[in-house]
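Weekend entry, working from home. Most of the wet-lab plans are on hold until the incubator is repaired, so I used the time to fold the two sequences that have been sitting in the queue since the last round of cloning. Logging both here for the record. First:
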Amino acid sequence: MTSIWRLIHTPPARGAWNMAADEAILEHIHRGESPTTLRLYSWDPPCLSLGHAQSFKDVDMERTKAHGWEVVRRATGGRAILHTDELTYSVTGSAEEPILSGGVLESYNRLAQALLYAVHNLGLPVEIKEYIGEPAIQNLNPICFEVPSTYEITVQEKKLIGSAQARKKEGVLQHGSLPLTGDLTRICQALIFKDEDAREKAATRLLERATTVEAVLGRKVSFEEAGQAFVKGFEAQLGIQFERGEMSPSELKRTEELVEEKYAHPSWTERS
């Protein structure tokens, strides 16, 4: 039997709103009020997101504010990502949903296969790298796209999609980003380094280890084109069917509450 998932496209939004929306949807799924959901979205203004346990001390707030960027903390783990010029996806659902069932690696791998199919449809020569690395690497490096992870999507040996998953009592939340264009090294302007030489070396390493869709294809891919590829990839690889929908009034109300209570509040974002 084909699973029916809801597909949501939300307009570009602040980082706090985007993170609150994912959590609000998950809460509603847990209560049986919303279906399993794929949400495709972007960020306005650009925003640095920190992993759940990442220290706020990694952030250079003076430089970040000078660029007009915001900062938010995710509910998922991993390291910092500067969200700009990208397509971001989130999958929210019950742990009983077959595609999301099992452990983190099982469900992460299923979703990775759909992501692989999606970006392959855009014409990128992508592959999945199975990498089991030292946890210490994760802890020492503040930048997500410099750090290899299990079942990551790579192209020409460079990381293309950064994803992270959280399994909570309410269910499963996985989100990730596909950089479409732009200078990936901009993130180095948002983080603390011991000196400018260290900042420049981090930028060089990042370009050696990560890439964008445009850098590989030599052409710009729009948010809409990438979004269509994601929908096709999920449907073909996971055997699901999407119904286009919107966030419910209750989900939107809860999103605004979570912005105020949590995601825009220093007690959440500025933890060390």
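Second, folded right after the first finished:
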Amino acid sequence: MDWWASIILGIVEGVTEFLPISSTGHLTVTEKLLGLPIDSPSVTAYTAIIQVGAMIASIVYFRSDILRIATAWLAGVRDAAKRSDPDYNLGWAVIGGFAVTAVIALALKDLVEGPFRNLWAIVASLLAWSVVMWAGDRFGKQNRGEHTITWKDGLILGAIQSISLVPGVSRSGATISGALLLGIDRVTATRMSFFLGIPTLVAAGGFQAVTQASDIAAPGGVGWGATLIGTVVSFFVAYASIAWLLKYVASNNFTLFIVYRILVALLIAALLWQGTITAV
């Protein structure tokens, strides 16, 4: 992969990873437009690994929250008297949600990396989940804050997050929609998408790096140089994207993202119908 192509993909990853518009869908379309084989094991591994840059950005951004939650969880594990702390429950919610997502992801890994790496599947996912996002944004009561999150919420959101294994759904979009439907307010729902996403995507990127390192470095593969560039670029762009998103959802609903998803889906469909790009 050329260095400039890796920069483009790093920017796309950084901008879209945390917005509810599907980073995998955008990366897949961009890779296709750049002439890359989207079903190649090397490209699939590259797509997963550069997400680590965005995840590191989220760790840096939320470092004080992560430390607070981890401290409360450890204190609760050691002392039953401290288990009334909402952050203790939040810690279990994140652990439980990650565990559910990890189990489902491992079980469906081959399926997701095969048939669903198709642009028609992405079009369908973008449109279908836009309806779910609209329902969550429209009908969610939004009367629950971060202090109300329980381990049961974590398990439910972990299962919902696993739906984003299908390109086009959006990991953050799935988690946020699920949280809204559980009555959680927009800002807390968005923050939960980060808290659940950090361990999930770091683990996914690390797993890909270990199991598919040979695909990255193989002759004709993406190469570790390009992968490193994409990861670094995604870090800086993602950090700015996080700050913008949290500020935006504090005073706006998700209509902008829903409309955008629909327009992107229609654009991809038009390009496929015209033969400008192929589905796989």
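Plan for Monday: verify the second prediction. Residues 86-112 form the longest helix (27 residues).
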